[in-house]
Amino acid sequence: MTILDIARKLLHEGTICDHCLGRQFAKLSTGLSNDQRGKALRTVLSMQASADKDSELLEELKKTGEGKCWVCNNLFENLDPWVEKAVLALSDYEYDNFLVGTKVTGLLAENEEIVWEESGTMFAEPLKTELNREVGKRIEKLTGKRANLKKPQVVVLLDLENNRVELEVNSLYIYGRYRKLVRGIPQTRWPCRECGGKGCERCGGTGRMYQESVDELIRPHVMAATLSEDTAFHGAGREDIDALMLGEGRPFVVEAKKPHRRHIDLNALEAEINIGSDGKIEVRGLKFVESETVPQLKSMKADKIYRARIEHDTTEEKLKSSINIISGAFIKQKTPTRVLHRRADLERTRKVHSIELESFDRNTAILIIHCEGGLYVKELVSGDGGRTVPSIASLTESEAKVIELEVIKVG
C-alpha cells in the first residue's frame, strides 16, 4: 500500500485535520511540520482525483476539510489556551529551560489506536509528541526560554482530562563542604526513636532526638534564598555526633526541592549560613552541581584522618608497639554494638594506613589515625568486646577508649 493509498484510507474514515493526517507520516521527510505534510498529501490527492476524474475522492476531500477532526477533536486548533495556562504557571518560577509533557484523555488514546490500526502506517508519531512540540515552540517564543529534552529544570504537564496544567519543578543542587565546630550535633535530622517524629515525653514534643543538626542549620537559609518547599541533605559519609569535623570540611550536597528561584548568590548564601549558625558549623566552596553528584558523593570511598584523644591504662612502650602493629594492617570489624539497633550486623575489612602518637601522658594520649573510609575509629581503640580485631585495647592487653574525636581530613 502506497502513502497515498494510506492517506486516502484515512480520509475515508471521516473528517481529519492536517495535523493528524500528516502525523501518520511524521517519520518521512525532514523539515516539514505535520500540518504541512497533511496539506501536501491533501493537495496531491486532490490533483490525482482531478486527473482521474475521481468524483468519490473529490467528495471525500471536500468533507474531510470541514467539521471536527475525529482523531484529535480539533485539539491543534485550540493550543493558545494551553500555552497561556503554561506560561502563567511558569511565571512564578525562575528557570532557564523546560520540557512539555501530556496526559491524554482516554478518548484521544482510543482514537489514536483506531487510526493506527486502520491505516497500518509504520511512520506515525504519537499525538502527545506533536502536542508537546507545538506547545513547546509557542512557550519558547513567548518566554525566550529553550526546551530541553534531556535535563529540563521544569516540566510542564498538560492534563487534558482535567483541563489543567501541572508543573514538575526539578530540584536545585548546591555542593559545598561543612565544618562542624561543636560536639553533640548530628549531620541530618534525627526523628525520635520513641515516637517516630510525632512528639512524645522523651523528645519534649519536638519529634526529634536532637534539636539541631548540620542539615537544619543550613536548611532555612537555602529555603529562604531559593523559595523552595524543603531541602534534602546528602553527605559524603558522616561523623559521630560527638565528633568535630575540622580541616577543609566534609563534602555535601544540599538539594532544594521545588525552588522558585535558581539564580541565587552563593557567596551571600554561604555568609548567611555561617553567621546564622552562631559558630556551630561553617560551610565553604558552595557551587551549583547536577543531580548526578549526589550518587557520586554517596559512593565516595575517601580516606579519613582523625585526631583521637584516648583514655588508656598502659605504658607508652606498649602503646607504641600496638600502633606499629596496626599501622598498615587490615582491620576486621563487625558492626559496632552502639549502632546495632539501626544497622545490619555485618563484618567489614578496612585498612589503617598509619597511626602517629602525637602526645602521651599517664592516662591519656592523642593519636593521629589515617585510614580507609568506613573504619570505626572508636572501636579500633576499644576493640568493642572483640568485635574489632586487632585493636589497641587487645594489643596492649588493657582497657582503652576514645574520649574526644576530631575528623581533620576527608579525601
Task: Describe, in short, the structure shown.
By secondary structure, this protein is of the alpha+beta class. It has three domains: 3-169, 2-Layer Sandwich (THUMP fold); 172-298, Alpha-Beta Plaits, CATH 3.30.70.2510; 304-410, Alpha-Beta Plaits, CATH 3.30.70.3190.
- Estimate the mean pLDDT confidence: 93
Gyration radius over CA: 33 Å
The N- and C-terminal alpha carbons lie at a distance of 66 Å
CATH topology of the largest domain: THUMP fold
- Provide the CATH top-level class of the largest domain: Alpha Beta
Q: Assign an overall shape.
A: elongated
Which CATH-level-2 architecture of the largest domain? Answer: 2-Layer Sandwich
Query: DSSP helix count?
Result: 13
Could you explain how this protein is built, in words?
The structure is a single chain. The protein has 411 residues and is of the alpha+beta class. It folds into three domains: 167 residues, THUMP superfamily (THUMP fold, 2-Layer Sandwich); 127 residues, Alpha-Beta Plaits, CATH 3.30.70; 107 residues, Alpha-Beta Plaits, CATH 3.30.70. The chain is built from 13 helices and 14 strands. The strands form two sheets. Strands 5, 6, 7, 8, 9, 10, 11, 12, 13 and 14 form a ten-stranded mixed β-sheet that branches.
